[in-house]
Amino acid sequence: MKSAVERLAVWTALAGGLVLVALVGLTCVSIAGRALSGIGLGPVPGDYELVEIGIGFAVFAALPWCHLNRGNATVELFAPLLGDRLNRALDALIDLAVLAVAALLAWRLAVGMLDKKAFFETTFILGFEIWQAYALCLAGAAVFCVVALWRAGESLAALRGARA
Questions:
Q1: 20-29, 68-77, 138-147 — which is least confidently predicted?
Q2: Cβ neighbours around 133 below 10 Å, total
Q3: How many angstroms separate the CA atoms of 116 and 122, rounded?
Q4: pLDDT at 163
Q5: Of the residues 34, 88, 112, 150, which has the maximum number of CB atoms within 10 A of its CB?
Q6: Among 7, 13, 2, which residue's Cα sits nearest to residue 153?
Q7: pLDDT at 128
Q8: d(Cα 60, Cα 88) in Å, to the nearest integer?
Q9: pLDDT at 92
Q10: Where are the alpha helices (DSSP H) in the chain?
């Protein structure tokens, strides 16, 4: 099971990374087009919209991999003083809190997506339906929920194992 969760997190992060690389290329082309407007070129229409949507997806795509590897910021000032059992309890508590935040994010993205879809909101230049951007972010948030659930289960199992 861990292998499946890890693969899911890796592929989601890679998709976010590929989107970032594509956005860098798009931004370079758009800036070059602006610089060469004297010879008839111009910026990529809707480049800001595409960057906004792509960055949103990339952020949510990176969250699962970051959490799976415990890559979030931690302050371990008192950890050496607390002992193994208390540190495991803190890990479990933090992982449960991250699970709650991941579920909240996914829930609110789903509600927002349905709202944007109901009112047919689109971007100004490209006419891209905004609910689709929410759906992309929701996909990353859903994987984040799966990873957070896995991490919380591992932490609780480690805590139970420490008690035995």
A1: 68-77
A2: 21
A3: 8
A4: 59
A5: 150
A6: 2
A7: 93
A8: 27
A9: 92
A10: 2-35, 47-68, 79-82, 84-118, 130-163
